[in-house]
Amino acid sequence: MEMVLMDDKGDKIQASVRKALLPRFENKIKEGSSYNFKSFCVVANTGAFRTTKHQFKLNLQNGTIITYVGTGMITLSPYSFVYFIDILGNIDMDYLIDVIGILSSVGRKRVYKRNRVATKFKVIELESNG
User: Fold this and answer.
1) Which domain holds residue 117?
2) In this entry, which stretches build a coiled coil (predicted)?
3) Could you tell me which residue, 4 or 90, shows the higher pLDDT?
4) Which of 10, 69, 78, 111 could, after both became Cys, cross-link 34 (CB 3.0–4.6 A)?
């Protein structure tokens, strides 16, 4: 499981949980709430399809302790919307981006290969003029 954590200044970092640890964490973290994290691993944020441009990411481990702090502490929007025209002119395939549009079609399943790693995906079409 991948997620994006954001602090009160709007800085974001990617956090990962291995599949085997999902039952331990999936009900402990709720979107829009604030937490303290203790005892996790910090690693380089590399590869394709990164969720943030932060140079590091967090890996939660079996010994990671998550403490609920409260809600309403983060007032900034977690989104960084990009205009379609900017996407068409300068696509960086390494990072995910936030867009708003109306889903107008879904293509067939495809496979994208990069550095000998295959990723399955579907191409979607968004309507931006309405």
Assistant:
1) 84-127
2) none
3) 4
4) 69
Backbone region of residue 9 per phi and psi (left: phi > 0; alpha: psi in -120 to 50; beta: other values):
alpha
Least Cα distance to 5 among 47, 48, 44, 56 occurs for 56
- C-alpha 23/C-alpha 21 separation (Å) is 6
pTM, to two decimals: 0.70
Residues in the chain: 130
- Domain assignment present for residue 18? The answer is yes
E strands, the chain, are 2-6, 12-17, 33-38, 41-44, 56-60, 65-71, 102-114, 117-127
Structural domain count, the chain:
2
User: Six-digit token pair at 105?
Assistant: 């079609």
Residue 130: the pLDDT is 57
pLDDT of residue 93: 66
C-alpha closest to that of 16 among 44, 121, 118: 44
